[in-house]
Amino acid sequence: MAAQSSTPSTPPDPFRSKRLIYRAIEDNEEDTTFIQNHLNEPAMYLLSTEVLPRPRTQRNATEFVARQQSQLLGVMVCLPSEDAGSEDDWRKATPIGRVSLKNPMGALTAHHRNALIGISLIASVRGQGYGREAINWVLDWAFEIGALHRVSLEVLSHNERALGLYRSLGFVEEGRLREAVWQFRKWHDVITLGMLEGEWLKLRGREE
């Protein structure tokens, strides 16, 4: 008798979580306009980037889209449409942000199996748990599908809300660049937090 396969007859959609859909970021007018508007949100300047605040152009947005498409993973975070059918949910979904994984050290170091998370959501949906859900999803993708060993992220020290979220998800502070960013007439640290594959397995109740 042949051994039974553990693979489900209908595998789960790897680009869906409980409330969200994750789709490719397209280099079309719709996605470029969304990204440009998102990059120009005040919170993006002050909480999600160390770049000098100045109005972001369409060219900036186009270049941002290209960078997302070149990374290990770069997807739009979306809310499903109420009237979408199962086969085209992602086509009718409403973008609310983006999440990505990139090799922080370049292509020639891919064998180290490290990646850096980038995530941002539009202001109108913050505080509803979507960030937590998207990070949990990208962690599962990283370790389950992407075969990564370590995932990290960076946050400004004054962004206490994000720091609390990342720590509650199981990220461990690994170090900081002291007084590396100038904002609000003050110097702020850049904090690096990380999670190892073994730590993720333990969090998911799957220690090996």
TrEMBL record:
Q: Where does the record place the N-acetyltransferase domain?
A: 20-191
Entry's PROSITE patterns?
GNAT
Looking up InterPro entries in the UniProt record yields: Acyl_CoA_acyltransferase, GNAT_dom
Q: Which domain of life is it from?
A: Eukaryota
Q: Which GO terms describe its molecular function?
A: acyltransferase activity, transferring groups other than amino-acyl groups
UniProt xrefs under CDD domains: NAT_SF (cd04301)
Protein name in UniProt: N-acetyltransferase domain-containing protein
